[in-house]
Design goal:
Blueprint lengths: L14 H8 L7 H10 L9 H13 L4 H14 L1
Helix pairs in contact: 2-4, 3-4
């Protein structure tokens, strides 16, 4: 029986792990969320603390990035 190759254990990480370490994550500010809501025609008053919290939760689950992800998360938060 053949054993799987474990060459990455000897000091070189798998390609996907190296790529993940090199990604820069830009934190999403409340202002960015409110700005995207304005673009969607949603009043600033609708962006309560609870909605902002749900938007951030939605962003963690999203596979897309940028303003489109924020807008999708806003829709998701307002529906719940």
């Amino acid at each position: 029986m053949r054993t799987p190759s474990m060459s990455w254990c000897a000091g070189s990480a798998p390609k996907d792990k190296v790529m993940a370490r090199n990604l820069k994550v830009t934190p999403v500010t409340n202002e960015a969320i409110v700005e995207c809501a304005r673009e969607l025609g949603i009043p600033e008053e609708a962006m309560t603390f609870s909605i902002l919290k749900q938007v951030r939760k939605g962003l963690k689950l999203s596979s897309i990035t940028g303003n489109e992800a924020i807008k999708e998360a806003i829709f998701w938060a307002l529906k719940s």
